[in-house]
Specification:
With 216 residues, the protein is of the alpha/beta class. It is built from eight helices and five strands. A five-stranded parallel sheet has the order 2-3-1-4-5, with helices on both faces. The longest helix has 24 residues, at 69-92. It is globular and about 50 Å long. The structure holds 2'-deoxyguanosine-5'-monophosphate and sodium ion (NA) (2 copies). The site of 2'-deoxyguanosine-5'-monophosphate has 14 residues, from helix 3 and helix 4.
């Protein structure tokens, strides 16, 4: 039943390494929710269309573009803050929001470059906390066999291995237990992964009367 009345929409995040099918799955999920009569919006991070997002796009596409790791990190976080009020408003109107990447990518990618994990988390403190996180992953062995990454800054297999290690830290955290879910995509079709994703979302379709939690 579509969410109504005082129920807000749920904030559903799909996270994952580069090229693990995140964008395909978030698109499918949004279509499925909409086809069942739920109000839903997709928000993809980084949002490269904003002024800060344009700078992020240059940073990702042009490896000669000089920016310290800390400054890059703060730009990605600022990009999330640019959209935070809109996300909150949308949820409060009873609309579901599906996120393609969010704070966990922010921390994992920057910590993989060697920045302090807690320092990386701090600028995101206070952002709307997802009600459900679906982390799409694959084994390190499979990750190492992958080729054909694009030319963007982080699309190098060894670096992806380090990012995976940082993401796996969230899975092990007590505070993440109630929201963090892992879906291994290895050897699965788009439909199979879609079914796994839907299985996690199905229980949330009534919306919730709980206030929006804050990150950390
Ligand atoms: P995507 O458009 O989803 O392919 O993301 C672009 C790249 O940017 C990808 O390699 C992951 C990385 N990325 C996404 N969000 C963040 C973030 O918040 N911080 C950092 N350092 N990297 C990020
Ligand atoms: Na990418
Ligand atoms: Na981002």
């Amino acid at each position: 039943m579509p969410s109504t009345g005082s129920h807000r929409g749920q904030l559903i995040l799909v996270e994952g390494l580069d090229r693990c099918g995140k964008t395909t799955q978030t698109t499918r999920l949004v279509e499925k929710l909409a086809s069942q009569g739920h109000k839903v919006e997709l928000v993809k991070f980084p949002d490269r269309s904003t002024p800060i997002g344009k700078l992020i796009n240059t940073y990702l596409c042009d490896k000669a573009f000089q920016l310290s790791d800390e400054a890059a990190h703060l730009l990605f976080s600022a990009n999330r803050w640019e959209l935070a009020a809109t996300i909150t408003e949308t949820l409060n109107q009873g609309t579901f929001v599906v996120l393609d990447r969010y704070v966990y990518s922010g921390i994992a990618y920057s910590a993989a470059k060697g920045l302090d994990f807690d320092w990386c988390a701090s600028p995101d403190k206070g952002l709307p906390q997802p009600d459900l996180v679906i982390f799409l992953t694959m084994s390190t062995e499979k990750l190492n066999q992958r080729s054909g990454f694009g030319g963007e800054r982080y699309e190098i297999s060894e670096f992806q291995g380090l990012v995976k290690e940082k993401f796996d830290k969230f899975a092990a955290m007590e505070s993440m237990r109630s929201i963090w879910n892992v879906v291994n995509v290895e050897g699965k079709s788009i439909e199979q992964v879609g079914n796994d994703v839907w299985g996690l979302v199905e229980g949330l379709l009534q919306g919730t009367s709980q206030p929006i939690h804050k990150f950390l």
